[in-house]
Amino acid sequence: MDRRTTIKWMFAAAATVPALRVHGYTAEPLARDVAANQAGYGTDPVLARDWKPGGPWPLTLGAHARLTTAALCDLIIPADDVSPAASAVGVVDFIDEWISAPYPQQRGDREIVLPGLEWMEAEAQKRFHEAFAALDEKQKSAIADDVCSPARARPEFAKAAKFFSKFRDLTAGGFYTTPIGMKDIGYTGNVPLAKFDGPPLEALKKAGLA
Amino acid sequence: MPFITSADADKNTYDVIVVGSGAGGGQTAYTLTMDGARVLMLEAGRRYDPAVETPMMQINSEAPLRGSGTPEKPFGFYDATIDGGWNVPGEPYTSASDDPARQFQWWRTRMLGGRTNHWGRISLRNGTYDFKPHARDGLGFDWPMDYADLAPYYDKVEMLIGVYGGDDDMENTPRSSKGVLLPPPKPRVSDLLVKQRAAKVGVPVIPMHRAVMTTRLDHLRLPKLLHPGNEKAQAILAADMQKRSACIWATPCGRGCSIRANYQSTTVHLPPALDTGNLDIVTDAMVREVTRRKDGRAEGVVYIDRKTGAEHRAKARIVVLAASALESVRILLNSGVANSSGKVGKYIMDTVGAGIGGQIPLLENMPLHNEDGADFGHMYTPWWLYQEQLAGKLGFARGYHFEFGGGRRMPDMGTASGLEWLNGGTYGRKFKEDARRYFGSFVYFSGRGEMIPNEDSYAELDPKVKDKFGIPVLRFHWKWSPHEIGQAAHMQKAAAEIIEAMGGKTSSRPQAGEKAIKQGGVIIHEVGGAMMGTDPKKSVTNSFGQCWDMKNLFITDGATLCSNADKNPTLTIMALAWRASDHMLGLMKRKEL
After folding, report:
1. What are the tens digits of pLDDT across the range B389-403?
2. Which of B61, B424, B432 sits opposite A149 (nearest CB)?
3. In angstroms, what separates the C-alpha of B521 from chain A's closest C-alpha?
4. A97 to chain B: nearest residue by CA?
């Protein structure tokens, strides 16, 4: 079974209405609301514990929106020779945690991300009559090429480009903070050392310092 | 019984009450108890044990929101701040003005050790000019002491807490005595590149001084120097120094350090002080006021048990306020004492802050290596334009230093974000390549400058607003003068020149000073409000932090500082606290108090 078929089946399984045939988000809510009285983690949370998305506050993205999120973050950070795609290291859960958080910054980002996901979905329907996640790479890129650069985006794509920038930052932050992402990007620290040797000679040479 | 309840404290008698457990309170309690005084320390926040509570080695994907700051943890999830930040629930403060430029932001924390648990550990000495600024340029106030008065105490504090630094001796940037400092960490590539290129635009770069142990402390030599003739204190300190580890070159300092490799009051001052048996600590004790005896001297303090809401009274021969400069001001104003000069709350200062960052192509695609080092700066730029300034060439008074950073540091939400200004906006495999290419190629320069005390920056009691304990809160007035604003513009311009000299480009253009300068309080170096001086009519205390109006009331936090040099105040607060405590011990021994 190819990937696109799998994704279509996932849509079917995720649908709350059996008749869902991927018409944007009409058949199910994009996301549940964040409760108006939703608390944060407080001013004295336990620090030395592995927090998971969904722990401090409930996740809110609907099943369809999670598929769009996964497809989009994997378009931004796909698997390559060095590391897997963003969705493989929990970035979908992270983005869901972020836009479901009760704090002002995240509430503001939610107002960018949810309409943005809706736009991506509508654009996929408009251009290709398919859910965004079900598009092939070429089709997804056709949309992304129009919105990936805020400076180059045509005026009608300006809002979508703002969303894409925000979503790219969330994806990158979610990915490069994981052990796999840190290794990919070249972070080799956070290991106890008996002594700090400073930079190796080849690093100094590269910067013209030796 | 070191940690006691308020009920226990009621039954005991003490020589000294110390309000606050941070840099000032910790140093005061340490010096007093090591010399035999019985001390009760009252801390408004909860008990905190870095040995078990510090999130050592956690990475950001283990934290909610990848560790990003929120209103509940403004410096990030793992920051060693408990029940604190710009807003403390139930404990408001107010501003007299609606104009953000005229407002002051007040960072507090409610935990044992206070802000020493999370601070940047930058430990710079004031220089000779910094004690006599008015004599030099006619602005602000001179201190009732010289550098020579405080230099021995700088040495002592540095030996006790462990400070790394270089041996440079520059204008108004004094060196420590021989054998005092620990060796500085090796520079990173970015440090060396900044040094090489800054030199081309006439800007010096030298090793930073920070309270991080690059080696273990010499437990055979130092205790004898710090406590001559006091064998008990020497033994206690020698034993404690052996329990402190050197830096392991990993995990950010701002989380605190469970192995005690850097300075926090909770890991350096309080353990030996507790070992003397002379220190009792009550946490969750919110001091409301200093009470007065019939003879006009301080009787003790009234405090509220945060957990029960009950009011308690503690009495002692001496009361020391070290609650943080503005919290001590608040206690004084609420007590109605020590203010015959009318100067309590006046002349509050913060540090001038402005900065700019850039991207340096020469630092792209570096061979992989670990650049964590001692976390924050290994090197810095001391103020270098004293002579130009004296000649009137700069258009503003007083200097600043640059703290700068670069290299591949632990990824957070800022990593690989906002790259559009460099790559136009990419996705896919190209984005992953860009992320690798640019990671570690950024530098950021933070200017930290001196604010001159002025008549428009002060704190008073808000006539209406009270906190959840019913205690009147502070209302702030704030105004930067053209000196600070000119300095902020100079910071961004000078940093941009260095970035360009490194072959890089800045991520934003240098701004006008009004735009560049951070809001008052944002650098969290607030001092003043109960200045020391030589004239009881114009100051609140003498040079020992002893209140003119109440001889057994002392202030050993930043409230007494007469100026706020660009040297970051914590080391100076500790040196002053040690000196003041020696004075208290003398007065008690001579039965003058």
Report:
1. 989 999 999 999 999
2. B424
3. 20
4. B65
Is a pLDDT exceeding 50 seen at residue B488? yes
Phi, psi of B491 (to 5 degrees): -55, -50
Q: Which of B409, B523, B75 is nearest to B255 (CA)?
A: B75
CB contact under 8 A, A188 and B408: yes
Q: Do B371 and A199 touch (CB under 8 A)?
A: yes
Q: Please determine, looking at this structure, whether the domain spanning B1-55+75-164+262-349+450-479+521-593 carries the CATH number 3.40.50.1110.
A: no
Residue numbers in A near B431 (CB within 8 A): 76-77, 168, 172
Q: What CATH architecture applies to the domain B179-207+352-447+481-516?
A: 2-Layer Sandwich (3.30)
Judged by a CB distance cut-off of 8 A, whether residue A188 touches chain B is yes
What average pLDDT score do residues A61-75 get? 97
What is the Cα–Cα distance from B34 to B227, expressed in whole angstroms? 8
CB contact under 8 A, A185 and B415: yes
Q: List the one residue out of B367, B288, B374 whose CA is nearest residue B333.
A: B288
A148: closest chain B residue by CA: B425
Q: Does A98 touch chain B (CB under 8 A)?
A: yes
Q: Which of residues 143-182 of A touch B (CB under 8 A)?
A: 144, 148-152, 161, 164-165, 168-169, 172-174, 176-179, 181-182
What is the C-alpha R_g of chain A?
Answer: 20
| B494 pLDDT more than 70 | yes
Per-domain residue ranges of chain B = 1-55+75-164+262-349+450-479+521-593, 179-207+352-447+481-516
Of B30, B211, B46, the residue nearest B116 (C-alpha): B211
Mean pLDDT to the nearest integer, B538-552: 98
Contacts of A202 in chain B (CB under 8 A): 367
Which ipTM value was assigned to this complex? 0.95
Tell if the CB–CB gap between A75 and B414 is shorter than 8 Å.
no
The structural domains of chain A, with segments of one domain joined by +, span 3-31+52-206
User: Residues near B30 by Cβ (< 8 Å), separated by ≥ 6?
Assistant: B160, B269, B270, B272, B273
Looking at the partner chain, which of B46, B83, B362 has a beta carbon nearest the beta carbon of A208? B362
Chain B residue closest in CA terms to A170? B413
Question: Residue B588 carries which DSSP code?
Answer: H
| Residue reference for tokens 């020149």 | B497
| pLDDT at position A26 over 60 | no
Average pLDDT in the B10-22 region?
A: 95
Residue whose pair of structure tokens reads 């020779």 in the numeric block = A81
CA distance B167 to B183: 9
Q: What pLDDT does residue A18 have?
A: 36
In B, minimum Cα distance to A94 occurs at B65
| Contact yes or no for B345/B331 (Cβ under 8 A) | no
Residue A6, pLDDT > 70, answer no
Q: Which residue stretches of B313-428 are H helix?
A: 325-335, 386-390, 420-423
Going by pLDDT thresholds of 50, 70 and 90, the confidence category of residue A8 is low
